[in-house]
């Protein structure tokens, strides 16, 4: 006949079908199964020891049987409680990395948040055009980045310098008497258009719209997210052409 505890568990599941979600039911069942299984084994062991003639031998047999069993149970329960969240975290990270997001998802769900964006942040009154290209290249190499956003003191993005743009400039100017600066890039129309080709969207705009904005700006490979979706506003996040290309259409 079922134990009162088992009956209470069944009654709790039957009388409150809507009070527990799927995770709650699994947690309850896991606890009850382990609890009553442990009690059952304990009772069986006590009975076996009580009726056995060779109690020492029976004790060894019981110990040899129960230790691996309990170890398996502990591992199973730990996996039950922790593996799901770990798997979900890993899945979310993988989805973000490979870009298998819905194109109708808000950009805020797939963007690189501002706190994770590496780049050059200027102080108040600093002129981005005076930044030395060699310093920018050194910073990019140290951070192992292929593109380097430049932000003003208000955290607004002014330029995005790509490694390929720097390589093109230095290839065209192998030796210069004065250190080249961002102004040097701006003096070359073909390169000026590259570092200034930036799109902007709002956090609530869809990934699909971000793609459309990127296509609408010649040579654009970077879309930044601001509260207003306009250039004049602190950056909240960043979407690169690589990220958008990897998101399922």
UniProtKB/TrEMBL annotation:
Membrane-spanning intervals of the chain: 33-52, 61-83
Keywords: Membrane, Transmembrane, Transmembrane helix
Domain of life: Bacteria
Keyword Transmembrane attached: yes
Protein's recorded name: CBS domain-containing protein
Organism: Pseudonocardia eucalypti
């Amino acid at each position: 006949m079922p134990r009162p505890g088992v009956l209470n568990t069944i009654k709790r599941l039957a009388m409150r079908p809507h009070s527990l979600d799927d995770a709650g039911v699994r947690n309850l069942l896991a606890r009850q199964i382990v609890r009553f299984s442990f009690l059952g084994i304990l009772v069986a062991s006590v009975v076996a020891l009580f009726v056995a003639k060779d109690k020492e031998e029976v004790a060894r047999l019981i110990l040899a049987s129960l230790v691996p069993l309990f170890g398996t149970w502990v591992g199973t329960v730990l996996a039950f409680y922790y593996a799901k969240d770990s798997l979900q975290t890993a899945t979310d990270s993988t989805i973000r990395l490979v870009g298998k997001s819905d194109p109708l998802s808000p950009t805020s769900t797939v963007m690189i948040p501002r706190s994770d964006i590496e780049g050059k942040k200027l102080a108040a009154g600093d002129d981005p055009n005076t930044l030395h290209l060699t310093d920018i290249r050194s910073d990019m190499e140290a951070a192992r980045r292929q593109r380097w956003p430049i932000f003003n003191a208000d955290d607004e993005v002014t330029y995005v310098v790509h490694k390929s743009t720097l390589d093109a400039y230095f290839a065209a100017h192998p030796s210069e008497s004065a250190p080249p600066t961002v102004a040097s890039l701006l003096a070359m129309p073909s390169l000026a258009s590259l570092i200034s080709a930036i799109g902007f969207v709002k956090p609530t705009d869809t990934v699909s719209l971000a793609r459309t904005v990127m296509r609408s700006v010649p040579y654009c490979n970077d879309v930044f997210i601001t509260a207003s979706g306009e250039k004049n506003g602190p950056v909240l996040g960043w979407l690169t052409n690589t990220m958008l290309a990897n998101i399922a259409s």
